[in-house]
Amino acid sequence: MGRYDSPAALAALVQPHQVHRDIYTDPEVFQQEMKHLFANAWVFVGHESQTPNKGDYFSTHIGTQPVIQVRHSTGDIHVLLNRCPHKGTKIVIDRQGNTGKFFRCPYHAWSFKTDGCLLAIPLKKGYQNTGLEETDSGKGMRSVGDVKNYRGFIFARLAEEGMSFEEFFGESLSSLDNMVDRSPAGRLEVVGPPLRYMHHCNWKMLVENQTDTCHPMVAHESSAGTAVKLYEELGLPEDAPKPPAMEIIAPFMSPYDFFEGMGIRTWPNGHGHTGVNHSIHSDYSAIPGYFEALCDSYGEEKAKAILDENRHNTVYFPNIMIKGPIQQLRVFIPIAADRTVVESYIYRLVDAPDELTARTAMYNRMINAPTSIVGHDDLEMYERAQEGLMVDGLEWVNIQRLIEEDEDFEVEAVENGTTERQMRNQFHAWVKFMTMGQKTEAAE
């Protein structure tokens, strides 16, 4: 028995105002996360535009489990475990491609339909009267427990039984709705491969940082602060149009009262967003023809309502963040207790001006690329924290800013934009989904 084999031991790592460092550093806790949390939660897989044609596939991970998103012959999208049921060989090693009408294992040539069903086995006579068809291996590639295509975004739950998609996300889907509705056609398309790079830290540090509004003006002073200073030294008139790059980077240096006034909204199951009232994306220049295109599709009143919503970062627990105003999604893929791969995707608004996509791509390069000057401010803080948490003597991490007595995380709440309630909300969900499977096992 390990230290964290029981639900009680895992739950004890989270207190109302603090969490134990083992949550970030202990390999056993990490393995329990992969076994329970990432199985019980609904996890982002990909976007339907990554597999537009029949036979198209895209390989990725749910937690540490390799999976394949594939477009079946019916046009539906399936999510399969990337493992041959015969000897365990990975079926797909390319990131994406087209498999045609079936998958074929490269080891013994077992083949499977694109919904995972067993299609053919060489020398099948050798399995007559062996009972193969009654075994799991004889049923083909295994699908994940459940799949949902929500407005083009593919989510999956590994567990066969559990919380429904609708219950898991609830009202938080309004952020995804707003991002998709910004397209006059109501559709998004992924633009190219993601920016991808390794972080030497625990995956939860990145998730927490998305709603941490007390760090930008401090951690980013060396990057955004320097850029603002150099721009101001140009001595341009105050009414001079700002270059797009400055519109993107300057708001990172906004003062504390700006972020306090933004507001933070939290939803049950660990979801939440910054930018209730305004955000760093609120004052971007208008793109000619865009508002008119939205009005043609939705009418002026709804078009204004769509664009007036400028949410900053929406966290979908456990491991993605979206930015609706610039059509970006970041997924934090756990590799080990101290290793996380970050993938930053951008999307095109179908039937919208191309200038919007160009601005989104510029934001992604400036803020999220491996060469970013802003992203590496955060990266250094994560790695310092990962190292610092190994220091003996202080075993707890504080998350009690603006804490209230008897906080209820099963209801929606809107609070001061510098509260750490969303971090507490995430850890409340962490305990909930970490222990859900184990409680079920104990009951059985």
Automatic annotation (TrEMBL):
Residues 42-141 form the Rieske domain. It comes from Sulfitobacter faviae. Belongs to the bacterial ring-hydroxylating dioxygenase alpha subunit family. This is Rieske 2Fe-2S domain-containing protein. Keywords: 2Fe-2S, Iron, Iron-sulfur, Metal-binding, Oxidoreductase, Plasmid. Pfam families: Rieske (PF00355), Ring_hydroxyl_A (PF00848). It comes from the Bacteria. PANTHER family: 3-PHENYLPROPIONATE_CINNAMIC ACID DIOXYGENASE SUBUNIT ALPHA, CHOLINE MONOOXYGENASE, CHLOROPLASTIC.
